């Protein structure tokens, strides 16, 4: 299991937090995604070799947010 912390910009409310969580959770191979509005982070646990960092960034960006 791998773990990656992304810095997410543009979240302003709980709905934003939920939207990023949903987007990351839908990436194949992701086992857990915890998004913190207060910290501006997304902590993602995923199966090694099944998920790339680029795929996670793309999911966040497609949801309408930026990864710093």
Automatic annotation (TrEMBL):
Highest taxon of source: Bacteria
GO biological process: copper ion transport
Matching InterPro entries: Cu-bd (IPR000428), Heavy-metal-associated_CS (IPR017969), HMA_Cu_ion-bd (IPR006122), HMA_dom (IPR006121), HMA_dom_sf (IPR036163)
The keyword Metal-binding is assigned to this record: yes
Keywords: Copper, Metal-binding
CDD domains from the UniProt entry: HMA (cd00371)
Domain HMA: 2-68
GO MF annotation: an example: copper ion binding
Keyword Repressor: no
Family matches, as Pfam families: HMA (PF00403)
Name of this protein: Copper chaperone CopZ
């Amino acid at each position: 299991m791998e773990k990656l912390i992304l810095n997410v910009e543009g979240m302003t409310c709980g709905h934003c937090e939920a939207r990023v969580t949903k987007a990351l959770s839908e990436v194949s191979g992701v086992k857990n995604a915890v998004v913190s509005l207060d910290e501006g982070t997304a902590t993602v646990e995923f199966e090694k070799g099944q998920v790339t960092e680029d795929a996670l960034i793309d999911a966040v960006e497609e949801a309408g947010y930026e990864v710093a």
